[in-house]
Amino acid sequence: MVHDTRSVEEATAYFSQLTTLITKSVESVLHDYAAASRPLPTLECTDSSAVLDTQVIRDAVRVIEGACAQLVASIAPAPHIMANRTLGGVDQACLRVAIKAKIADQLRDGPKSVAELAAGAKVDAGKLGRVLRNLAVKHCFSEVTKDVFANNRLSVCLLSGTNTNALVDFGTDELNTAFVYLPEALTKPEWLGSNGVEQTAYFLAHGQAHFKRYETETWRAERFSRAMIAYTGLQGGTDEIARIYPWPKVSPGTTFCDIGGAVGHVSFALRKMHPHVKVVVQDMASVVEDGHKLWEKEDPHGLAKGDVRLVAINFLEHSPVDGCDFYYLKHVLHDWPEADCVTILTNIKKAMIKKRNSKLLIHEFMLHDATQHADHAAAGAILAPPPLLANFGTGAQRRYMMDINMLACYNGAERTLDDFIRIGNAAGLQFSRLWEGGEVTVMEFACA
């Protein structure tokens, strides 16, 4: 048994530091709203445009979330914390009910009673009221009077047709079902060391690999696509690489090759912000065909001049277009086991050596452990202020949740900086530095 050896003064200082971090972070949010001459939105505000989403506010929220969770974990009885976490699945189930019953849609024009909502959804009023009461306690929907509910700033995310609705729908459906099977998937003796998509919790839950299922259930594929658009927005949007990397310093005519770039939304955002950069978008042939339609509509001049090219590729078997200044991978490596990642990077290196000083930018979630690493800070990583966990703890929880998501669905993985460096070295690449933006990190590599 480990006993707390801190003095009363040290323990008091610890709690004081946490509360100070919260206070200062809230003050930075207030300052950002004041600087923008914007009123602070209330919980009852349903206008999403009223909410500022700046990097200052994202940084503040990260600290507030991390510090509040660490403060409660330090003060509350341990069984209290663990009981709440054990019952966390209740909220997922209630969100699923709200989506299936289209509660947010029913409340679009104003508050309604549980009886009215239940009639519209053809469900039991007493049971629906209990579900909505649980959500309202967590500030999703507001109970304005007894058994009368209204939308608020959280519940409007559940409106049909929104990308966040698709994200919640997908998560509370396919993902949560898969997570139930994660212990079984990890303890099957015959799956020890496996890395196939058919040796996953998702496969156990649904009887098919994730994307294989979508070949016949196309509505799921469409929902997943919209969910990923919502998730990209949470990470800073498609223009994040255009904002955080020093593109103004690169020469006109610099070529950016987006490997696995789908139809090219990231490249389009880069061209829009930095038109002096030429782009090559590479993905599967069928995806490239769809990409041509987008670019013919959005940047026909770039296509005609050759400043925009779309080229099919199988990156496990072939190298990308030779001689580009920058090669770029966003959320590609986390889908693949380490051996395949080395193959992908080796193929890219073959193209990089055709042009001197060519660089590879890997744009992925980067996991930090909870300890301070001076070498990571020197490379550009942002470490949390003490006494927070160095990785911001709960304030950065989504990247760790995404790691488990990749494990459950694909046998993929999010990785640490050391992991990326090891994989890069195995492919003949040397790490240079990194840039942290939203939730994901840009790591720069060059030929060794």
From TrEMBL:
Residues 90-160 form the O-methyltransferase dimerisation domain. Transmembrane segments: none annotated. Keywords: Methyltransferase, S-adenosyl-L-methionine, Transferase. The keyword S-adenosyl-L-methionine applies. The keyword S-adenosyl-L-methionine applies. InterPro entries: COMT-like, COMT_C, COMT_dimerisation, SAM-dependent_MTases_sf, WH-like_DNA-bd_sf, WH_DNA-bd_sf. It comes from the Eukaryota. Coiled coil: none annotated. This is S-adenosyl-L-methionine-dependent methyltransferase. It comes from Exidia glandulosa HHB12029.
